[in-house]
Amino acid sequence: MSASVLVGYETRYGSTQEVAEAVAATLRECGLEVDIQSMRKVRTLAGYSAVVLGAPLYMFRWHKDARRFLSRHREALTQRPVAIFALGPVTTGDEKEWQDSREQLDKELAGFPWLTPVSLEIFGGKFDPAKLRFPYNLFTRQVPASDLRDWTAIRAWVSSLTAKLQPALPQ
Ligand SMILES: Cc1cc2nc3c(=O)[nH]c(=O)nc-3n(C[C@H](O)[C@H](O)[C@H](O)COP(=O)(O)O)c2cc1C
After folding, report:
1. What residue's CA is closest to ligand 1, atom 20?
2. Distance between CA 72 and CA 168 in Å, rounded?
């Protein structure tokens, strides 16, 4: 039997992949058939009735391969419900950072005016300066490590999604 929902993700340091895995697990708990795959590796959306896409923001931009995925699968994405999330804020108690991340994501998606996500969400990200590679390690050494991923909020978002994706799924 073909899977009904694709959870596609991109990541550099793994934190978005872990969120995507939690999204997929929660969708399965809700009784849906789910595949999870790096967006780069997805060849076709045939066989998927709905799509959830997640990728981090870096330097004000949504991950390059996520943007490429949107362009490459434009036609298929206009024919299915699409939900989108991005990881971004990494500073505790900085409300402005959340607004900035949301604006960055909105700006990125404005480049794809044909796309109308059924849901769009920003989640807190994970930041570990010790793991960063060149050149990012040069200017982030003084920033404290953090993990603002709120697993309860992530699961609640996914539960709210099922009603929006359900009409497209085979009964
Ligand atoms: C060098 C660097 C630049 C970043 N730039 C942004 C940004 O412009 N906007 C934002 O919201 N988050 C930004 N972040 C936070 C990341 O989105 C966050 O760390 C995320 O969890 C990384 O996901 P990954 O582990 O899947 O690669 C940045 C993080 C780093 C390390």
Report:
1. 125
2. 22
Q: How far apart are CA 37 and CA 171, in angstroms?
A: 24
Does residue 60's CB lie within 6 angstroms of at least one atom of ligand 1? Answer: yes
pTM, rounded to two decimals: 0.95
- Shortest-distance atom of ligand 1 to CA 11: 26
- Test site for ligand 1: of 87, 123, 146, most ligand atoms within 8 A of the Cβ: 87
- Determine the pLDDT at residue 3: 64
Determine the straight-line distance between the first and last CA of the chain, rounded to whole angstroms.
13
pLDDT, one tens digit per residue, over 73-96 is 999 999 999 999 999 999 988 899
Cβ pair 18, 138 in contact under 8 A: no
Query: Does residue 13 have its Cβ closer than 6 Å to ligand 1?
Result: yes
